[in-house]
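protien #1 (seq + structre)
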Amino acid sequence: MKPSTDDDLLAIFARLRRSDREDAPAWCPELLDAPRQRPEPSRRWMPAVLAASSVVVLSLFLGRMPQHGPSLSEALPPLFDVPSGELFASIEPSLMALEAPSDFLLPEHLNLIHP
């Protein structure tokens, strides 16, 4: 058996190396020292974005404004319309003044409230 030669592969790779050398850009060492140029962002959309965001903010602000309700004098209860009386007359008596339903069963000397 005759060993296969790779002469055809060598020719193909040599042709590819030649085409790579021809298509490769020229070496320019000055480009390495130059500052990198950053692409400028497109400012063409900036006015449209600002207008849209301002419309959204205005609609949120105006949508949450409180509705005109009654004036403060109408909303507050009248303070001086009731007749004057005892200061704490509307407060119910405390629990100490409460008479338990079984107080009548106690002897008279233990009753705090005498009839």
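ok now protien #2
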Amino acid sequence: MKPVLDHTKLQGLKEILGEQKCNAALERFQEELRTCLAAIEGGGAERAESAHRLAGVAGLLGFDDLEEHSRRFLDAVTQEQDDVPALAENLVEAAHRAEAELSAAV
């Protein structure tokens, strides 16, 4: 399993944006993560859009594990695959790991 957070990637982002802006981005991501999780767990039509948003921001911030699970789920939803429920569960677990890491980082 990939690490929850690629600290090197996050550190590089901090060097580009500065500590304060990067921390603000992490706080916004924490809120976005909760919103997206609710949509994904709810099983509504917006779950694909939520997975897409998670994948993009998670990857940028260094949450590669969450990005990977988000992309797998998104692909399964858009292709109407049978394994959507299992991939949703994996995505939710990855999101909870990211939440725990965010709580420690923010």
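The chain has one domain: 7-105.
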